[in-house]
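Dear colleagues,

As part of the handover before I leave the project, I'm documenting each prediction I ran so the next person doesn't have to rerun anything. This entry is a single chain, and its sequence is reproduced below.
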Amino acid sequence: MKNLIFVVFLLLFTQSAVARSMSERVSKIEASWVNTTEEKPSDERKNIFLSLVNDISDVVTSFPGQAEPLILKSTILLTMAKDASIFVALGLVNQAKVLLDKAIEIDPEAREGSALVTMGVIYYKTPGWPIAFGDDKEAEGYLLQALEVNPNGVSSNYYYAAFLLNQGDKTQAAGYLTKAVNAKLDPTSISFKIKQQQQEQAKLALANLS
């Protein structure tokens, strides 16, 4: 019996240590991505992002059953797409979509449903067939799932509001913008500044509707 308890304890400790190791690596790479995104000009970012993609790819390989590294890798690829030509950007978006599909399959609630939010955004911002896979119906489906996971989050509310505005639904969008503006932020989070920016964008969009 004592041996069984020891084995169970050892397994739990090992799982905890592995999760902690993954989290620390993801957090370090994410911090570098945030710093690069906010402080480096576009012509200096490419090589840094490529290095970060290699770093997070190693984490993805080391932790194949975890959603977080997949989500961060997709985020870096999508950031790279902003500075790329249309052809290259579409390739990066497609790569990101594959990663997000895997992340959602593993754990749709990881990172407060951020994979669902991102998938929704790329579905309505990406051109439709025959150029790419853009689809407003799919976009809304993912964004509504994200709201189910995180009904009071900044990102989930702001991006669904942005989708509604894109559809011309200003009345319904106003309610989600208000929730995004009133959402509580964690100042210790690595993504604090990014969520602050989303909140400011929500405030501006709400003011424009008034």
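The longest helix spans residues 2-39. Residues 151-210 form one domain.

All the best with the project,
I.
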